[in-house]
Amino acid sequence: xxxxxxxxxxxxxxxxxxxxxxxxxxxxxxxxxxxxxxxxxxxxxxxxxxxxxxxxxxxxxxxxxxxxxxxxxxxxxxxxxxxxxxxxxxxxxxxxxxxxxxxxxxxxxxxxxxxxxxxxxxxxxxxxxxxxxxxx
Length: 136
Known about the structure:
Blueprint: H1 7-28, H2 33-43, H3 50-57, H4 65-73, E1 77-82, E2 85-93, H5 95-116, H6 121-135
Antiparallel strand pairs: 1-2
C-alpha cells in the first residue's frame, strides 16, 4: 500500500479552512457554531428531548443548555412541555430560526462553492459524493 497521510491529517487543514469560512457568516447571523448545529438538527423536524438532541448532534446534554437558552431567547427555537409527559420539553425550530439557519447555510455554501471551484467538475462531484458517504 502506498504511503499517505492519515485521513485526519489530510482533512484537518480543510476543516480549519471551512471553519474560517463559516465563522464570519455565523457572526453576521448572530449564531454560534453550536447554535447553527442545533438549528440545523431541528430543521429536520422537532426533537422530543434535550438529551435526544444532544445525542443527535454529538454534544453533551449539559453543554447545550446555554445554547438552547440563547436560541429560545432570540425566538429561534421553542421548548414546550410535552402534553403526554410534562417533564419533557419538545424542541422545535421557529419560522425565524428556520429563516436565519437557511440564510446562514446559503452564505456558507456560497463560500464553499468558491473553494470547490478549484476542483475539476468530475473530481468535485466525486469528492462531494465521497464526503456524503463517509459522513453517514
